[in-house]
Design brief:
By secondary structure, the chain is of the alpha/beta class. It has one domain: Rossmann fold. The chain has eight helices and eleven strands. The strands form two sheets. The protein has a nine-stranded mixed beta sheet, sandwiched between helices. Strand 1 and strand 2 (18-24) form a beta hairpin. The longest helix is centred in the first third of the chain and has 21 residues, at 58-78.
């Protein structure tokens, strides 16, 4: 690790997984972050964003299945680099656990706000969290974390998408979205600004469904999000590919593969990922 790199540490999670975490001071460039994390080259980039509520319902369980058995399998088998929000919520955990099951061969980078997260061995502090909530644990199957300064969720987005731009330079990339609120909409706009195609999981709820025109039941929040979607004009600023939750993990694998590697067809194992790896 270069002497010019910010503070870093190895986080050892229960179960034996170890991740490299980098504290990212304001103004640190994406190139410096990637250099200090010592990432291996990858043929393409996958970004996963969306809602971080651990609700238990049929749609959420289906999203988890699609990520674990479909998207994570593609990332592991093709050696993709992945960027997520990094916390131990169902959206990111199902994907990262899938990477571990499918024997990941590339980096999975979580980008989060350092004062709002915790990890094994982090010193206990009596200071209140800036967001007035309990710190969120980091997801233990990620390989790397970039932990930025900030006071609220969403402060990590500029660094996340600076990293995405750097990682996708001269490489294909795709972003996948499920659920989410205003922060997720900002992430969609960041993808649009970088010209990246987005797969939106139709039926996953909230802003993802609103962007697709599938308006959830009217509440003050959904009405506010619908106004924001119209104001940002995100539908007309980017390539959006809907993917219905009724489709299979194989279908999601093949869709993402076609976007990233158009010349490849049907080069994956269709056997059940639970019965035969």
């Amino acid at each position: 690790m270069s002497a010019n790199c910010p503070s870093s540490r190895a986080i050892r999670f229960p179960g034996g997984n170890t991740a490299r975490a980098l504290d990212v001071p304001p103004g640190t460039s994406a190139e410096d972050i990637l250099r200090c994390l010592s990432l291996a080259p990858a043929p393409a980039l996958l970004i996963l964003n969306g809602g971080t509520t651990n609700s238990v319902n049929a749609a959420q369980l289906r999203v988890e299945e699609l990520l674990y058995e479909g998207l994570a399998r593609l990332a592991a088998q093709q050696g993709l680099a992945a960027v997520t929000g990094g916390t131990d919520v169902s959206l990111f955990a199902s994907f990262a656990e899938g990477l571990a099951y499918w024997e990941k061969r590339a980096a999975c980078i979580g980008v989060a706000v350092r004062p709002l997260v915790t990890w094994p061995g982090r010193p206990v502090t009596n200071a209140p969290s800036p967001a007035n909530c309990e710190p969120a644990p980091l997801e233990p199957h990620h390989t790397h974390f970039a932990l930025v300064e900030g006071n609220t969720w969403g402060d990590e987005t500029p660094t996340m998408y600076a990293l995405a731009a750097a990682l996708s330079r001269a490489r294909p990339s795709v972003a996948v979205f499920a659920g989410g609120g205003e922060i997720t909409l900002r992430e969609m706009l960041a993808n649009a600004a970088q010209g990246r195609p987005m797969i939106l999981l139709a039926g996953s709820g909230r802003v993802t469904d609103i962007v697709l025109g599938n308006i959830p039941p009217a509440t003050p929040e959904t009405q506010r999000l619908a106004r924001l979607v119209e104001q940002t004009n995100v539908r007309n600023r980017s390539t959006i590919i809907p993917f219905d939750l009724s489709q299979s993990p194989d279908d999601l694998y093949e869709l993402a593969q076609r976007i990233l590697f158009p010349s490849r067809r049907d080069d994956h194992d269709h056997s059940s990922p639970i019965q035969d790896k």
